[in-house]
Each structure stands twice: as C-alpha cells, then as structure tokens.
Here is the input.
Amino acid sequence: MTEDFDVEFIDRDDRTARFLVRNVTPAFANGIRRAIVADVPTMAIDTVRVIENSSVMFDEQIGLRLGLVPLAAPAGEFEEGDTVTLSLDVSGPGTAFSGDLISSDEVVEPADDNIPIIDLKDDQRLELEADAVLSTGKDHAKHQGGVAVGYRHLQRVEVVGDREEYEEAEPHILRGTIEEHEAEHASPGPDGEEPTDGDLVPTETFDHDLTNRYTGKEVEVHDVPNAFVFHVETDGSLSIEDLVTEAVDTIEARANELEEAIQL
Here is the structure.
C-alpha cells in the first residue's frame, strides 16, 4: 500500500456491521479477514469440573455445550492464557441457561443469557465449575469472535446506453454494495430519497436487480480498485469496533516483528 487506508461504515448494529475499506490490496483485505477470524483473543470455557450431574446428559456433552457459550470480556483486560472461573448450580424441573453461569470476575459474563444448556427434570441437578481461558481462533473455533466474516469488491455501475423501447428487460442481478456513479439515471431509494453520486448503496435496497435502479438503461459493472466492503458479525464476546481494531493491531504487531527479525 502506498497510502493510508480509509474506513467508512455503511451500516451497523450491536452484532453486525458493513464497512468500506479503501486503498488496500486484495492480499491485505484477506489478511484483515483472517485476523478477525483467527487472531483476536476471546474468552471461552476450556475445562469443566463436574460436582454433581444427575441429568440424562453425559458430562462431556455438557462440557461441549459450555465451551460454545460466547463470553464477553473487555478487550485488553486479560493476557492470552489467563483464566476465569465460572460456576453453575441448577436444579429441576426447568432449563439451565447461559445466564445461570456465575463468574468469579464481574467483567467476564455470557454474551447472551438465553442460550439453553440442558433441560432438567424433577429431582435432577447439575453443579459444576468451569475455567474459561483467553485464546484465539487459530487454537480452537470456540475462540472465534467473528462468526461470519467476508468481503467483496466495491462496485461501480456505468450506464452505457438506453435499452430498446420494446426490448424485454431481463434481470441483472448484483449482490454487494455499489458506489453511485450515475445518480441522474438512478431511481429514488425505497424511502423516496434522491440518489447522489458517491452514495454507498447496498444492493438489497433495489432487490439486487440493477433493472430496478436503472430503469430502461443498459449498464456495465466494474470493480472499484483497492476498495472492499466487509461484512462482519460477532458472537457478542467483543463489539464490532473492538473486534476489527484488535484484528488490525495483530497485523501491525506481526509486521513489526518481521521488520525487527530482518534487521537482526
């Protein structure tokens, strides 16, 4: 890369986000994706000590379910390998949920309280202690804070002419995000907003069919060089901002480590 990359959010909420990154190569874009998936440390239950289990489920099955419960912890609060103990003590009849886990450290807690662990019948009880460890997705998938991470080229539509008056319009399907370049030919958005050159428009706003946005026009689609739209979904263990920032930091740390090694 010859210049600083630029980031612009297209849409986001607590768990998902779509953002544009400019001035990055395809290799660097893929590096960001891989870092989000594999290199950002998160807490997950690793070992379980069962004190009493009179349920119908084996200890190993319960341990597997507990390991897949996302645990929220502040970024930078712990070092890799640090552990936190959680406990669970529930009796039937009823369902044990992730929210029933009690953490020894108040900053570590289940990202969701309503994940079912086991149904308990009358006179059944489950009591256990579990150690959660901070590790990364490259060690185990349960530490992947980014559960769905992908990217596409940002694309630009060019109007190359008018469609013949009596020519039947065939769907022109496109998925992703376009950077508006032909606003004078584009139809208003679903809420009636007028298009403007430079707008970032998710294709679902026109049902992924360019004939809905550029009515009666012949169009061509081009990739915008070195511009990629990322779609990221977290499991709740980290916020979108922390997940992406931590991922980029790991890339920078590896680059610095390589630079130092070369200079030796």
The two ends are 25 Å apart (CA to CA). The first strand starts at residue 6 and ends at 12.
